[in-house]
Backbone:
């Protein structure tokens, strides 16, 4: 029998703390601003939406934040996730590269999202909250929060981007199986949704719009808080269990990644994998290249501005400095619904600005081609989002082949594609086309950035 | 933090041999007969369909058969699977019972089926075969063989029972992702399919019909062998990795099951879990109750006859003694497509005849209710087939509560339901009804059993 192909850790090696990159960054990220005053917001400004424990994590500069016992208890159902060596993919590519992936699709909801959903549900429950509203793109996040809500007895209401709601009807059934309610967005249930529909009745929706609806509900109901599945500091923080586990698993493998790859919509799966390694490098440890991969049709890091902007379309959120395409930008309805966000996590945007990571964009058909190559070699059908990471990993492995260098590549296989099979069906039928945004619309959205963004 | 909830074994604890229950049964199973002569068949009779290595396993009386290195190598991607303690389900039921499940849904194809698919693909490849034809019900087996075929470079052709093909269109996309071809059965591609369609153009299909089509293709093409996903001795043999792992995991848990539960269509997931424990008992080890669970709408063990019958509808297979509803019986189109087989594994039928296991039947809506209860407690959406095992486990746990006894219950959570979400959607919409067969049709099918069945 040949070498190990799967590095498995026992339950007691689940990290005891989340890792906070802010502690190791050479400069702190710019503050979040109040849209009225232009001044940095305080904890109380966020209190209508989030429990104080999460607000504390959002602004913390501590390097390590303890994971509560009940959260680790639930993590143990599927964590630590295995680190896989993709030996069959390596052979199929005939590359000298060593390709590894961390597979988060084994979680109950099928992606990395439960890592933060469980934590957020826990802190809300502790704070006496009984109801959480949220948005979801492809449905990975909505399913994860629905799962977490079922465990803590919380009512969950999910605004699902309409184009994904229609593309992936079974995601709704999954959320309902967990007891959640799922509403296509824009909806008639909120002022934000009604305003969008009045202007464009056939709106495919966007994460920015769905966030507006969910935030509005939370802001106007005392029993309801809001939860976000990516972007925010505390969300990225919770995902660092992924990278921390991978670091221990690379010790077992007696190897270390030269290149780290993740897809980026809001940025949490990429950050979860990469930040622990980046922190190690920033503390004087080993060099590592970070590659964030996004869709050409929603190119936040590669075409957006690094500027202050709203997190949502209706401008209900504070202003955060991030790479953004403009909060009114509505990307076309491509299949990687989790990557259709106009902004990027402030921490990733800041790290990009500091030159600590690279970004690149791919079209969806080339990503599906990569996903099918992975499926035929490794037997796992990735989510369309994850296909972006697979594509970059394959490209890097082929570059190793050309150059005759044996680099170690690690990518985050952040979720399975079992609820995205219409996309694969369309791909095989030759019906999947690369989509693009309207350049004029992008220019207008960028021109509409709030004026504080000059800073 | 509370006690362990997940028992994980390292890669090197994957069993090195498959366990053959035949070695420990008090009497050998009745021989397989040639339908023409009524005499026991020899290896050469099966050679047009199977490689000699599998034929050898089919008739072996050795207690342990070595798992080839390349097969274990592939098993290592997802095996050993975890043994889970369902503490949240226990709390939800408020039962003193200890409920465990072995979760096979983590395999690439989403069920236990790759355990035998990989082995069968390996032996066929070794024998120089380039093409395998097979049948599939719900699609779990077809996906598994498609996956295995991709790994060994074999062409895979899957005849999928038409009602499931229509209920679960994304299973087809999954098989195509792995490079297989999927045909709804009955089809115009075979004489067997054409004969059925001539008589009943709207036939929903059955496993018996799909087997006829796949066997016909294998029998008439030199480059093509046939593979079966359940029923046969060698298939049950390959699944014993499940139960063998569970035995080691119960040692870790310092516990032992009083009750073993699995759903039964052809019988392989139930046998895979239960036979290693049954063997232990037969060798003088601990007592354990075995419960095989089947659908009321296809009640092979609870309403069928233990008699010689054909494995397929067109009578292309040899005669095997098994519990059967008659090879012409076409069950209604309920959602647990993997349980719609007229027969039962000869080894399970024999064990049942020897009084070594119990059988019970449930309707589909009560099984979905149980599945949703599991989803809300454990976060895993089971396949409709697995819901039958969940229902029985919950019933046994509730009986423990009534009686105030703390029994240990182990069930096989043999697959996830990600490709069965239309069934959950229908269930939530109140559209799922319990189906039943026509009593007259069953009587006719039973009356048509071949005359050798007198024996």
Residues:
């Amino acid at each position: 029998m040949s070498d190990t192909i799967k590095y498995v850790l026992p339950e007691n090696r689940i990290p005891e703390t989340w890792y906070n990159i802010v502690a190791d960054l050479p400069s702190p990220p710019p503050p979040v601003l109040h849209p009225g005053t232009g001044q940095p917001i305080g904890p109380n400004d966020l209190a209508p939406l989030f429990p104080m424990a999460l607000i504390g994590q959002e602004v913390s500069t501590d390097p390590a934040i303890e994971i509560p016992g009940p959260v680790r208890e639930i993590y143990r159902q599927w964590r630590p996730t295995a680190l896989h060596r993709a030996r069959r993919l390596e052979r199929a590519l005939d590359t000298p590269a060593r390709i590894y992936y961390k597979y988060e699709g084994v979680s109950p909801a099928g992606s990395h999202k439960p890592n933060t959903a469980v934590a957020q549900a826990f802190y809300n429950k502790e704070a006496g909250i009984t109801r959480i509203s949220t948005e979801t793109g492809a449905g990975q996040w909505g399913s994860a929060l629905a799962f977490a809500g079922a465990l803590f007895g919380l009512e969950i209401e999910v605004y699902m981007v309409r184009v994904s709601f229609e593309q992936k009807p079974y995601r709704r059934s999954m959320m309902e199986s967990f007891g959640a309610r799922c509403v296509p967005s824009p909806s008639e249930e909120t002022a934000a949704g009604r305003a969008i529909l009045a202007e464009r009745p056939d709106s495919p929706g966007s994460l920015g719009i769905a966030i507006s609806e969910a935030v509005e509900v939370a802001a106007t109901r005392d029993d309801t808080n809001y939860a976000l599945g990516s972007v925010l500091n505390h969300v990225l923080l919770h995902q660092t269990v992924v990278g921390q586990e991978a670091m221990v698993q690379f010790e077992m493998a007696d190897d270390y990644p030269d290149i780290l790859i993740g897809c980026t919509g809001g940025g949490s799966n990429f950050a979860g994998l990469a930040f622990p390694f980046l922190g190690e490098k920033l503390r004087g440890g080993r060099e590592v290249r970070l590659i964030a991969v996004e869709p050409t049709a929603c190119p936040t890091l590669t075409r957006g501005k690094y500027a202050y902007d709203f997190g949502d379309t209706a401008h209900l959120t504070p202003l955060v400095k991030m790479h953004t395409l403009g909060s009114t930008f509505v990307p076309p309805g491509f299949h990687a619904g989790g990557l259709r966000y106009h902004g990027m996590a402030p921490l990733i945007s800041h790290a990009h600005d500091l030159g600590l990571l690279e970004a690149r964009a791919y079209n969806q058909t080339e990503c599906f081609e990569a996903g099918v190559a992975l499926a035929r070699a490794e037997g796992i059908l990735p989510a369309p989002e994850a296909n972006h990471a697979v594509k970059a990993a394959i490209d890097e492995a082929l570059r190793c082949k050309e150059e005759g260098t044996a680099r170690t590549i690690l990518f985050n296989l952040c979720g399975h594609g079992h609820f995205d099979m219409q996309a694969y069906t369309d791909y095989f039928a030759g019906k999947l086309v690369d989509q693009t945004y309207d350049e004029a619309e992008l220019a207008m959205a960028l021109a509409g950035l709030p004026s504080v963004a000059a800073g």
Q: What stands out?
A: The mean pLDDT of chain B is 95. The longest helix of chain B spans residues 233-253. The radius of gyration of chain B is 20 Å.
